[in-house]
Amino acid sequence: MHDVAAAAGVSRGTVNRVLNGGYVSADARTAIEAAIAKVGYVPNRAASMLARQRSQAVGFLALEPHSLLLEDPNIGAIMLGANSALSLADHQMVSLVIDSDRDMQRVGRYLSGGFVDGAIIVSARSHDPIIRLIGEIGLPTTFVGHPPDLARDMPYVGIDNIGSAREITRRLMQTGRTRIGMIAAALDRDSGADRLTGFKEALGDRFDPGLVADVPLYDYTYGVKGMRALLDREPAVDGVFAASDAVAAGALEALREAGRRVPEDVGVVGFDDSSWALRTQPPLSTVHQPAREVGRHAAELVLRQIAGTEPVELSVVLDSPVVWRHSA
Amino acid sequence: MHDVAAAAGVSRGTVNRVLNGGYVSADARTAIEAAIAKVGYVPNRAASMLARQRSQAVGFLALEPHSLLLEDPNIGAIMLGANSALSLADHQMVSLVIDSDRDMQRVGRYLSGGFVDGAIIVSARSHDPIIRLIGEIGLPTTFVGHPPDLARDMPYVGIDNIGSAREITRRLMQTGRTRIGMIAAALDRDSGADRLTGFKEALGDRFDPGLVADVPLYDYTYGVKGMRALLDREPAVDGVFAASDAVAAGALEALREAGRRVPEDVGVVGFDDSSWALRTQPPLSTVHQPAREVGRHAAELVLRQIAGTEPVELSVVLDSPVVWRHSA
DNA sequence: TTGTATGCGTTATCAT
DNA sequence: ATGATAACGCATACAA
Fold it and tell me: CATH number for the A161-287 domain, one of 2.40.420.20, 2.60.40.10, 3.40.50.2300, 1.20.1440.230?
């Protein structure tokens, strides 16, 4: 910048004004712009960051077991939604992966070091050390997925897993299924536990613990295993709520190998409305997750905290409607 | 840091020494450590970045159409591999998504602004503006996937798509298939074009352009469509090389709906050895992509450029062996 | 409208 | 082993 000022024959203050807006004469402006091009000037954002005490960047963390990070289509959609909202506000989204303890430490330093003005955190668990850290450094943050126990004053955005699970289970009942089972997954996370809760609520007295198979992850392969287990325990099962579309796709495979027709012999519903839902045969009835919108809202909540003008609502719960296709 | 120095009754220089290593007396050290805890000091990395002229961060860009970013399992594995190598060297990996022109500009500024010391760029196309930018600012970079035309002096790491495609096609021939087709995908990228080239080379005189269906993306749904097209054109087809496992999975579906048995009636092979390969029925014979290793190597090449001590090799081609399962 | 001066929080160099 | 001090490159408040 020094060079630019010299080349244009003005002071650095004026150069700064053409860069960041301000009163500048037309002559000075053109001279400076020419000088900028001539010396190939690129602003040093570290210096800017230091002087302004902000980075115009927002961190995106997905605290998932990495197998999920690679597969879960929701995460990607949330990222994209968040990115487009941040982009509109001229903020850079930077995603940080946490795949080890070492990563955890380093990311902690990164966040507290001022590299970002805020953060979006997806699927944190209550005990995740990151939550305490966020609280300590007071970084504007929005949680996605569910409200973290330890930071109840932090905004979060998500969907009503319980309600939607209840609703889609009810529809399964309304179509006349009498032996309805569930392949529950990821019961150690809120989304997984909530979906099971909704299932139970819908069934009420008719809930039979023997008809829920639980598997550790939202994964196709576990869907296959879960369905096999279910068939094993109750061959008469005629309805299945799979905790996610990937799981449902696996269930479909297991049903096919067992010679059951879907939806004639057994109705299957999933959750997420991900790309799985349309590629199975038949296409899945499922719960639509507005993942992109979730990301967008999360970004906006962070931006508003950063702006700090108005208070920010503590939670946004987005609609997740049932979409009825042919698998049930 | 000022506060810490004051609280510990020493100078800032000494504080810095306990932070970044150097000769410090035991007394001073303990006093300073106590002071650090007491005032809750966290280093400001912007200041450090400015003073040291480096960020200890490396950018990770996947220049994919976003539909792919969400689905392609390779990207995730490459990221994880790169992250673990960077982590070992105490560098923060930051992934940046480019989903619009606006993103492109902003990411460009981010990279040239000193927020990162280097970059890993996955699946750049020759005309991607990012390539020119990288050249201009001289950022230590490694390309993944294929060498960029415009930056031939930049290291890249990848696999031999042509050779592996040739090899797996040959194996298909050796198992006695006589009407072998290909579902080619993403012919506008090197990986896609190379796989088709390898296919042609293996077949030699026996290559029949009528037996290749080409689809735009490495995607399950396109696999279904491609296979249908192939069956339509040549009902006698008895071998298929799908450009990726996702495509192969789609092909399997189309074959099933057409009543063909795999591998009895038609043999199918894929590419990638992704999670698709094990979840199809039968499991796919395919080409194993060492995606994680690719990421690791890419990271190491970047780190070595940053260190700048030794010259760095211009390309690393990793082994991608055929793995034989039951689909052919 | 433009120039000047000071501060942002570290690192690094030099004395001591 | 420690303290003082000058960069690092930009933003900003104030003066002109």
Answer: 3.40.50.2300
- Give the angle subtended at the CA of B237 by the CAs of B235 and B243, to the nearest 5°: 120
CA A176 to C1' C8, in angstroms, rounded, equals 69
- CB under 8 Å to B131, separation ≥6 — which residues? B121, B124, B148, B150, B151
- Listed by number, the residues of chain B in 273-292 with a beta carbon closer than 8 Å to a beta carbon of chain A are 275, 278-279, 281
Strands B286-287 and B322-323: antiparallel
Cβ of residue A38 closer than 8 Å to a chain B Cβ: no
Q: How far is A204 from chain B (nearest CA, A)?
A: 35
Mean pLDDT of all residues belonging to chain A: 92
Measured distance CA(B83)–CA(B303) in Å, rounded: 12
What letter represents residue A303's amino acid? L
By the CB < 8 Å criterion, does B129 face chain A? no
Residue B67, pLDDT above cutoff 60: no
0.85 exceeded by the pTM?
Answer: yes
A81 CB neighbours in chain B (<8 A) are none
Among A275-289, B54-68, B103-117, B224-238, the minimum mean pLDDT is found in: B54-68
Kindly report, residue by residue over A26-47, the tens digit of the pLDDT.
989 999 999 999 999 999 999 9
Q: Is the pLDDT of residue B73 over 80?
A: no
Question: Who among A50, A87, A103 is closest to B103 (CB)?
Answer: A87
Instruction: Give the residue with minimal CA–C1' separation from D13.
Output: A13
Q: Give pLDDT, residue B281.
A: 87
pLDDT in tens, A142-183: 999 876 666 667 899 999 999 999 999 999 999 999 999 999
User: Does the beta-carbon distance from A79 to B90 stay under 8 Å?
Assistant: no
What residues does A133 pair with on adjacent strands?
A: none
Let me know if A262 is exposed, middle or buried by CB neighbors in 10 A (0-12, 13-18, 19+): buried
| Distance of A156 CA from C11 C1′ (whole Å) | 39
Measured in angstroms, the CA of A201 and the nearest CA of chain B are apart by: 33
The yes or no reply on domain B57-158+291-319 and CATH 3.40.50.2300 is: yes
CATH topology of B57-158+291-319 equal to that of B161-287?
yes
Query: What does the longest C-alpha to C-alpha distance in chain B come to?
Result: 87
Alpha-carbon span B155 to B302, nearest angstrom: 9
- The domain ranges of chain A are 2-43, 57-158+291-319, 161-287
Model confidence over A197-208: pLDDT tens digits? Answer: 999 999 999 999
Which residues lie near nucleic chain C, judged by CB under 7 A?
A 9-14, 17, 22-25, 27-28, 47, 50-51, 53; B 1-2, 12-13, 16, 19-20, 41-44, 46-48, 50-52
